[in-house]
Amino acid sequence: QAPRREAFGSRNVFILSAIGSAVGLGNIWRFPYVAYEGGGGAFLIPYLCALLTAGIPLLFFDYAIGHRFRGSAPLAFRRMHRAAEPLGWWQVLICVVIAAYYAVIIAWAAMYTWFSAQLSWGVGNEEGFFFTEFLQMGDVGKTGLSAQFVPQAGIPLILVWLVVIVIMALGVKRGIGRANMVLMPLLTVMFVILVVQSLFLPGAMEGLNAFFAPNWAALADPGVWAAAYGHIFFSLSVAFGIMVTYSSYLKRKTDLTGSGLVVAFANSGFEILAGIGVFAALGFMAQAQGTDVAGVATSGIGLAFVAFPTIVSQATGGSIIGVLFFGALVFAGVTSLISILEVIVAALQDKLGWGRIRTTMTVSIPVALISLALFSTTTALAVLDTADAFINAFGIMAVAFVAVIVVAWLLGRLPALRDHLNRRSSFHVGWIWMLLVGALAPVVLGYLFVSEIIAKVNTPYGDYPIWFLWVFGWGMVISLVVLAILLSLLPWSGRSHAKDDPEYDE
Ligand code: PHE
Ligand code: NA
Q1: Environment of ion ligand 2 (residues, CB < 5 A)
Q2: Residue from 231, 336, 340 to probe ligand 1 pocket by mutation (most atoms less than 8 Å from CB)
Q3: What is the rounded (10 degree) CA torsion for 416, 421, 422, 425?
């Protein structure tokens, strides 16, 4: 007899946790630059289109599957149809890869929270400090994969894993729910203070002008629309199995679509706020260096670990900006990381019928060890960069594409899912939702997927050696699919039938 399925304490805790998952590094370091590049103020149009026609409809789709079939991703898909189980494992494996490197960025950000307080990098040496002193970055082309441990990056990584393992072991209600109840309000407050403080920096207005100035010509570029759709899928954490898993922990009588709208708009609110804060700070940096905003605008690792330390060095009260910024990255990252790990833990709990602690340890320790082996050495950045680029381009786009095709077209489940959404919800969905999920989503996802393949075949990613791209790029993405099929062939010893779960009715 499998133990009783876990649940969130209340719908509000679920909403907060879903926002915690959605609001992540993407909001802070990805969105501002995507928007700036994609037409500034004019980007609002493709962004809103992507949000309303794909992001929110697919968010509802994930909620409906998880809540209707009341299971982790593999179980929910299996209950829909036996042959659909590999889809769930595919999502689980994508989460394994993402978890392994997401933790690394959190660890770096945690160290930088500390460094910010005393400007450890030495004013003027921000870039050299990050790559050479902190990461001790090596060259995979020359040395191959390194086994040389870098303590200042590796030790915080161990600590991050210890913290999230404790949260995961405490379970959905006492671990994940509580962590989000504490961290999300804290994150919001820190974030608002950070943005307000950035607005008072000299040059902030130039930054905002650059961010909001509309470039209408960008709307004619299909690449900008593709960027908007690609960003929205990532930003809302749809098609990762996360929302399927979280919504399986909701009570039967729940307003699903109402919750989804709150989550989606909260996530967008965070993005816009981040855009304002980041560009205000970049405006200051440009002014301090006597260039224009275009000369300093970046995203990702470069924004967080080179540009921001520079701003922290030069601004009055810079240390406070640094502590708030890196602290926000840590909190936003941890609440996303635990949602990624929950996909994996829940899947094995369902499949094997094990208890919470045993499953958490069995899952988290190997993932933590992989994470440490690959990312606490001098070649961490190369592996991280490649895995991130390939999993986003192929893993997620592909699994989302296959999932909508299978569920909508092969299994014809959209009408049933629509009815399920409407049973308790305040916001009703109808044929428009089915059209968006069943027709528009596969077209957009298919387009994004194919254009990514063409791009990555034509121009090998980064300047990494070919063997490296085969192992950590193509090889990784392809082996996930094979492994997913194999995992779905293993027998279930946990709950796979309705009788195991009183709240699930066939
Ligand atoms: N949605 C998160 C963000 O915007 C990223 C994320 C993706 C988090 C997948 C968890 C899982 O940053
Ligand atoms: Na997000």
Answers
A1: 22, 26-27, 235, 267
A2: 336
A3: 170
